[in-house]
Design a protein that fits this description.
Elements lengths: L1 H20 L4 H6 L12 H8 L2 H32 L3 H12 L9 H10 L7 H24 L3 H9 L4 H12 L1 H16 L3 H6 L8 H7 L8 H20 L1
Length: about 250
């Protein structure tokens, strides 16, 4: 318990710093103790963030996150069921192929991904951010979901077969309810990955109106100076939606 309280004290300091600094003016931040309470308290930083089209960036991030998580979870769930319940060497090769994807870093494939997006005429669009994120999210999602589906007792599948259920009915009426904890885990994790994604928005888009939140936060930095209170106010506002999702 004491070690837990100590670790809480360690991690709460940067969180407190972010929230406290977001309510300070620039002059107050540079002229006082960084860990001091905001005095005077100001909401000007949040107003500046909102006026900098924060709502548009937030909308883009929400669209990309939903466009990634929903098809990714559905595809990974169905592929995991086929891998676990299927038979034959082809299924084993498919499983190994997906596991191989875990060993390939995104950064190593950014050039071919960029060329593919260009050839498909999808450059500078939100769809260009969704498709690669779905592809790179499948291996880990399938690994997690297949292990959960494998733990479902085989007797349950056999009893449904005796009742005349098809594989499609077993998929949605048995496997789906039994793997909901894993589905939620995968959905939250992939939503975080998509929400914090920086590389794909930086490489595959160029229009300011298509920026997602991580790229917008980077744009708040100036060439010679950075308005730290404004940046941290944007960080706080970008944290709230994913914090609400995680709480649910």
């Amino acid at each position: 318990g004491l070690a837990g309280w100590f670790w809480l004290a360690v991690i709460i300091i940067p969180i407190y710093f972010v929230f406290a600094t977001s309510f300070k003016s620039t002059s107050t931040y540079f002229g006082s103790n960084p860990l001091a309470l905001p005095a005077p308290f100001t909401l000007d930083n949040y107003q500046d963030v909102i006026e900098a089209n924060f709502i548009g960036y937030l909308t883009n991030s929400l669209i990309v996150a939903l466009g990634v998580v929903i098809p990714l979870v559905v595809f990974a769930f169905m592929a995991s069921y086929a891998i676990v319940r299927g038979e034959g060497k082809a299924i084993a090769l498919v499983r190994r192929g997906f596991l191989l994807g875990l060993a390939i870093p995104v950064q190593a494939t950014i050039v071919p991904v960029y060329l593919l997006i260009i050839s498909m005429r999808m450059y500078d669009s939100l769809t260009a951010l969704m498709l690669p994120a779905i592809a790179f999210g499948l291996p880990l999602s399938i690994l997690i979901l297949s292990n959960f589906i494998r733990d479902i007792p085989g007797e349950l599948f056999e009893s449904m077969s005796l009742d005349g259920c098809t594989e499609w009915q077993k998929l949605w009426r048995l496997a789906f309810p039994m793997t909901q904890p894993a589905l939620v885990t995968v959905a939250v994790y992939q939503a975080l990955q998509s929400w914090n994604g920086f590389l794909f928005p930086l490489i595959l888009t160029q229009s300011p109106k298509l920026r997602t939140l991580p790229l917008a936060l980077w744009a708040f930095q100036g060439e010679y100076a950075t308005n730290i209170p404004v940046v941290l106010a944007a960080v706080v506002m970008s944290l709230l939606p994913i914090l609400v999702l995680y709480a649910f």
